[in-house]
Specification:
The complex is a heterodimer of chains A (about 650) and B (about 170).
Chain A lengths: L1 H28 L2 H30 L6 H6 L6 H6 L5 H20 L9 H22 L24 H16 L1 H12 L6 H31 L10 H26 L3 H24 L13 H22 L1 H4 L12 H33 L7 H21 L10 H25 L4 H32 L3 H11 L1 H25 L2 E7 L4 E4 L2 E13 L2 E12 L2 E6 L2 E4 L7 E3 L1 E4 L3 E10 L5 E9 L1 H19 L20
Antiparallel strand pairs in A: 1-10, 2-3, 3-4, 4-5, 4-6, 6-7, 8-9, 9-10
Helix pairs in contact in A: 1-2, 1-6, 2-5, 5-6, 5-7, 6-8, 7-9, 8-9, 8-11, 9-10, 9-20, 10-11, 10-14, 11-12, 14-15, 15-17, 16-17, 17-18, 17-19, 18-19, 19-20
Chain B lengths: L1 H25 L6 H7 L21 H15 L4 H12 L14 H25 L15 H21 L1
Classes of the chains: A alpha+beta (about 650), B mainly alpha (about 170).
Chain lengths: ~650, ~170
């Protein structure tokens, strides 16, 4: 097994180098046979990567502790699902997963039906193969997944209990799918530049890939937040940790890209900017990996004892310098823009402002993340840049972005006239102001909350009007029924209406964030058995404290009955779990959710006589955050779904080459 | 006699005060907004990556003492700024969860907005350059109507649909 497992890595590396060289040779000699050989090589690499994955799965599930990785991240008692997910618990395993996804994506592109016969394919494959070679080099010589120990331990160290959570099964996988996915538009952009194809073909071809990568990045962040909320017991979902920031930055720049490509498609403008955004997004995924695996910044997410960051930094440097060189060498071609703006106020302008804010937010996150290093370099003091900084800096930027998001749908392309502005915005603006006044009357008086909710109301109204006008116009022509009209309107322009669903989802998330950040209530109370804790409208009866054993873990739990306004609404059981093979205990929170608020109870401490200390939090509007997240997924899937009339391959009008 | 009464009253007052203080210390709400304002300014150094407000005393001995010290200072009437000043004088800026808004650290706060402002001005000039007729009023009435634009799009999508059906 040892030989087989290691062979999958080294043969994979050899095949990746062979494929890269042979495709490059095929391109330069215009020899289709060589290119085909390289493409065949990609399939073989997928076989190797799959075999490596299966080997590690096998070793993990059969608890073969003679392997360092298995011993480090599993134990005999670990449930089978977590033995499997231990594959991405450590450095080398997670890089193997990354490599597998990258190879899988490369095969999908190299043998794509839509890209058949397209001269860009060998270039895209070569660029992705360059990435694959790097990852196999790392797996083969730096972070080896199949290392044998000198002495076989009787038992493994076990998996970090924090990672033994359903959220943690999906969170890393979705995040990696997002990270790796951003390599695809990058490879397309580079291939287009090398071939001097400066039209928007590559953008249309990669649109779906970019949305999918964006969706996975979103999911990764959402699952991470959900895990933090339920598993860490601090009642929050986003801590602005450097590693969280590392996944948020490419999300912001990819969001900017998804909007600015529309200007390139419509007006043949912003070509350099769009390529710049794709290079930045791709570089930020590598930067994130550098942060996680280098240890330069303190993070609860970082992989321990890792010097891998340096390799990623070097690779990122090579990729960025190479990409900038290609970009500069095609600068003259790209700057020949055909379009121009007709007005200061138009949809195009709002997209530019949207890009400014998104990239500005990404820069703010980047700056805050690296500032400890800057401060240390300049004056020898490594300051901490934490939540207060990011909340203060990001709140106005992201709120402005929400405002642009609210206004943009009702602005016309080309030019918004005074009449148009008045007609579209008068009623929404009045309604938003009325809503804000109502909020103040009802007791919501914090300035940020009132402004934030006001902008959200404006967004809902403008988006509703966008649907309403579309249905009205459609019914005027077709006399269809309302529901049929909504369905057809949306399915005929999936990207636009999918985007609107995502916007509404973001608004729900913003509602959750504003509500939970501004109006949370929490208290810490020590009570005797049989006593109650009263917080806001809730009465929580503490009825029982007991202990149970699950496998090698000891669990102390409290049984509590919850009443709201005197009416019983359910039972909760907050727990403290003590692991047999891990020093740090963890909290399982007692949670009752409703659309209005979450009741969140943590068992903090207890004494022998049953007296216990609880942290009780009331987090308003948290459910809306998860509903919004769900809508982001629905909207993205709706946008990329292959409808009956959507399956159109853009016409390739670029340079013809002899190989494809 | 009088002095004995005074001493007795003083003793009662002292006992009463001490017991009140004990109860206060015992029942102090470590999750109150006031305590949050003070404790969330300081980073816990146990490796949890959290501030002293969030750090769990059950798993971190360091935060237990720190929290008690803060409560003591609050009972003395110190506000969050004075507590902050006290700790910064001892441990330096490293103990804070966010950089100070003075000296070199001010750069951390200013830079994102300065960059955004500069980029905003640059975008304004770029749009101005792209707008066809320079100096024209950007809100000139336009014959193009939003509804027409939507109708046009719907119509073209319907024509496209029919074309694909029959051709």
């Amino acid at each position: 097994m040892y030989l087989f497992a290691n062979a999958t890595i080294y043969v994979g590396l050899a095949l990746a180098i062979y494929s890269l060289l042979i495709i490059t040779l095929g391109i330069s000699t215009k020899n289709q046979k060589l290119v085909n050989s390289g493409k065949g090589g990609v399939i073989s690499i997928l076989v190797c990567a799959s075999m490596a994955m299966l080997s590690l799965f096998y070793l993990l599930t059969t608890s073969q502790f003679q392997y360092e990785y298995v011993s480090d991240y599993t134990s005999s008692e670990l449930p089978i699902i977590y033995k499997l997910t231990a594959l991405w618990a450590g450095n080398s395993g997670s890089l193997l997963l990354w490599t597998f996804f990258l190879v899988l994506y490369t095969v999908m592109i190299a043998f794509s039906r839509k890209m058949k016969g397209n001269p860009m394919v060998p270039y895209i494959s070569a660029i992705l193969l360059g990435n694959i070679v790097f990852f196999f080099l790392v797996l083969g010589f730096v972070a080896k997944p199949f290392v044998l120990l000198d002495q076989v331990p009787i038992e493994g160290h076990g998996l970090n209990p924090m990672l033994q959570n359903p959220g943690m099964i999906i969170h890393p996988v979705t995040l990696y799918l997002g990270y790796v996915g951003l390599a695809i538009p990058f490879a397309f952009a580079m291939a287009a530049l090398i071939l001097k194809n400066v039209d928007d073909f590559w953008i249309k071809m990669t649109r779906r890939w970019t949305i999918i990568a964006w969706l996975f990045l979103s999911l990764g962040n959402i699952f991470g937040g959900q895990w933090a909320y339920t598993e860490l017991g601090w009642g929050g979902y986003w801590a602005w940790d450097p590693v969280e920031n590392a996944s948020f930055m490419p999300w912001l720049t990819a969001t900017a890209f998804l909007h600015s490509v529309m200007i390139q498609e419509r007006k043949n403008m912003l070509k350099i900017w769009n390529i710049g955004l794709i290079i930045t997004s791709y570089a930020l995924t590598l930067f994130g990996t550098f942060l996680v695996r280098s240890g330069v910044l303190t993070s609860v997410h970082a992989f321990a004892n890792s010097n891998l960051g340096l390799y990623f930094l070097i690779f990122m440097g090579i990729a960025v310098i190479g990409a900038l060189y290609v970009l500069m060498s095609r600068y003259n071609l790209l700057k020949r823009s055909a379009g121009e703006f007709n007005s200061y106020i138009s949809k195009e302008s709002s997209f530019l402002i949207n890009n400014l804010l998104l990239v500005g937010a990404a820069f703010g996150v980047f700056w805050g993340t690296v500032f400890p290093l800057v401060s240390e370099a300049v004056r020898g003091t490594k300051v901490t840049v934490g939540m207060p900084f990011f909340n203060t800096v990001q709140a106005p930027i992201l709120l402005s972005m929400m405002f642009v998001m609210a206004v943009c749908p009702l602005l016309a392309w080309q030019k918004s006239s005074l009449k148009n502005l008045k007609k579209n915005f008068l009623i929404p603006a009045i309604l938003a102001i009325v809503a804000m006044a109502l909020m103040i009357v009802l007791g919501i008086q914090k300035a940020w909350a009132v402004i934030g909710f006001g902008v959200i109301v404006l967004l809902f109204i403008t988006h509703f009007l966008e649907f309403y006008r579309g249905v009205k116009a459609r019914r005027k022509m077709t006399k269809e029924k309302v529901y049929l009209s909504i369905y057809r309107l949306m399915t005929k322009n999936r990207r636009r209406y999918g985007g609107y669903i995502v916007h509404i989802g973001i608004a729900f998330i913003a509602m959750g964030i504003i509500g939970s950040q501004n109006y949370d209530v929490q208290t810490m109370k020590t009570v005797n058995l049989g006593d109650s804790i009263e917080v806001k409208d809730y009465r929580i009866n503490y009825e029982r404290l007991d202990q149970k054993r699950e496998g090698i873990n000891d669990i102390v739990y409290a049984e509590m009955t919850v009443f709201r306004n005197g009416k019983r609404i359910g039972n909760i059981q907050p727990e403290k779990v003590f692991y047999g093979n891990w020093d740090q205990p963890s909290s399982e929170v007692g949670l009752i959710s409703s659309l209005k608020e979450d009741l969140y109870v943590v068992l903090s401490d207890w004494e022998d006589d049953g007296k216990a200390t609880f942290i009780v939090k009331i987090n308003p509007m948290m459910t809306w955050l998860w509903i919004g997240s769900f809508m982001i997924v629905i909207g993205s899937l709706f946008a990329v779904w292959n409808g009956k009339y959507q399956n159109i391959t853009p016409r390739y009008t670029g340079v013809r080459k002899e190989v494809s | 006699m009088k002095s004995k009464i005074y001493i007795g009253l003083l003793l009662i007052a002292f006992i009463f005060h001490a017991s009140v203080f004990q109860v206060q210390a015992k029942e102090f709400d470590y999750k109150s907004k006031k305590f949050e304002a003070a404790a969330s300014q300081f980073m816990c150094t146990c490796g949890c990556g959290q501030d002293h407000f969030e750090c769990d005393p059950k798993t971190c001995n360091l935060t237990v003492g720190f929290k008690e010290d803060i409560v003591e200072m609050m009972n003395k009437g110190w506000d969050k700024d004075k507590i902050r000043e006290y700790y910064v004088n001892i441990y330096g800026e490293e103990i804070l969860t966010a950089p100070e808004k003075s000296g070199f650290s001010l750069v951390a706060w200013v830079m994102p907005f300065a960059a955004l402002g500069i980029a905003g001005v640059a975008i304004f000039f770029i749009i101005r350059k792209w707008v066809k007729k320079k100096g024209m009023d950007e809100l000139t009435p336009d014959s193009e109507d939003q509804t027409d634009e939507v109708e046009e799009e719907i119509l073209s999508s319907m024509i496209d649909e029919q074309r694909k059906k029959y051709l």
